[in-house]
Amino acid sequence: MSAPTLRYKRVLLKLSGEALMGSASYGIDTETLVRIAEEIKDVVALGCELAIVIGGGNIFRGVGASSSGMDRATADYMGMLGTVMNAMALQDALEKRNVVTRVLSAIEMQQVAEPYIRRRAQRHLEKGRVVIFAAGTGNPFFTTDTAASLRAAEVGAEIMLKATKVDGIYDSDPMKNTNAQRFRELTYIEFLNKGLKVMDATAITLSMDNRLPIVVFDLSTPGNIKRAVCGEEIGTTVRMPQ
Predict the structure, then answer these.
(1) Any idea which architecture 10-239 has in CATH?
(2) What pLDDT was estimated at residue 67?
(3) CB-based contacts of 113: which residues, under 8 Å, 6+ apart?
(4) pLDDT tens digit sequence for 107-149
(5) pLDDT-derived band of residue 3, with 50, 70 and 90 as boundaries?
(6) In whole angstroms, what separates CA 133 from the centre of its chain?
(7) Which distant-in-sequence residues (6+ apart) come within 8 Å of 67 by Cβ?
(8) What are phi and psi of 71, to 5 degrees?
(9) Helices and strands per DSSP (H, E), number in the chain
(10) CB–CB of 27/58 below 8 Å?
(11) Residue 74 CA: distances (Å) to CA of 60, 78, 140
């Protein structure tokens, strides 16, 4: 049996903070963190130049706090700090597995992360290091999905992989509707016109402007990250019309 081959050389992986929780209701589940790190190690071993944007919803959700009366900008900055904590945890798990990793933060905190500089990020990727982008865009009112689209465009990623808890994009919530239908493929405009909530409109529009395809897939299925970077058909693909 032949070894898998890469379809995409440079990839941006978007991980939600919730992905690190596993079956817990808060924080970071160590077993889940280790499993994700092992999958990333396998992908890097294939020669993939991997950048990661990580969310912070397992620690603090800015939107939720602002809806409860907190100033939205303050809440968003607190959420960004949560992403730095997750980035440090993932870096630790990867480096324990001999995967050289750099955390680049959009909010400067030199004791724990490098400041985000685009050319530095590109250089790390060229050297085979996994780059974890923390603190979103560094600005309030932008989601980490938008940060992922932005960073993917900046470093020249060929595709963005959005890891979720479901196996793609559905026409309604599959957790609530057993008859929900999964889309195999969507154009950016179809995604926006249908008002789908898997990603926010800003992230989709930015990806469309840069012709960046997006694959939404289930992270809980072992090996799915490798399948995605090798071009296997999993989840739902959002891209320009063929």
Answers:
(1) 3-Layer(aba) Sandwich (3.40)
(2) 78
(3) 84, 87, 88, 103, 104, 105, 134
(4) 999 999 999 999 999 999 999 999 999 999 999 999 999 999 9
(5) low
(6) 10
(7) none
(8) -55, 130
(9) 8, 11
(10) yes
(11) 12, 6, 8
Task: Quote the CA–CA distance of 195 and 102 in Å, as a whole number.
Answer: 36
Q: How far, in Å, CA of 6 to CA of 171, rounded?
A: 31
Return d(Cα 109, Cα 88) in angstroms, integer: 12
Structure confidence at residue 193 as a pLDDT band (50, 70, 90):
very high
Do β-strands 185-187 and 236-239 pair in parallel, antiparallel, or remain unpaired? parallel
Q: Reduced to 3 states, what is the DSSP secondary structure of residue 109?
A: coil
Do residues 235 and 167 lie in contact, with contact meaning Cβ atoms separated by under 8 Å? yes
Let me know if 67 is exposed, middle or buried by CB neighbors in 10 A (0-12, 13-18, 19+): exposed
> Is this structure's pTM higher than 0.90?
yes
Structure tokens at 214: 């997006």
Quick check: 19 and 36 in contact, CB under 8 A? yes
Contacts of 6 (CB under 8 A, 6+ apart): 46, 47, 48, 229, 230
Backbone angles phi, psi at 28, to 5 degrees: -120, 125
> How many residues in total does the chain contain?
242
Phi, psi of 176 (to 5 degrees): -110, -25
Contact criterion met (CB below 8 Å) for 128 and 48:
no
Answer for the pair 11, 159: CB distance below 8 angstroms, yes or no: yes
CA–CA separation, 26 and 238 (whole Å): 30
Q: What is the pLDDT of residue 180?
A: 94
Each domain of the chain, given as residue ranges in start order, spans 10-239
Give how far the C-alpha of residue 59 lies from the chain's centroid of Cα atoms, to the nearest Å: 16
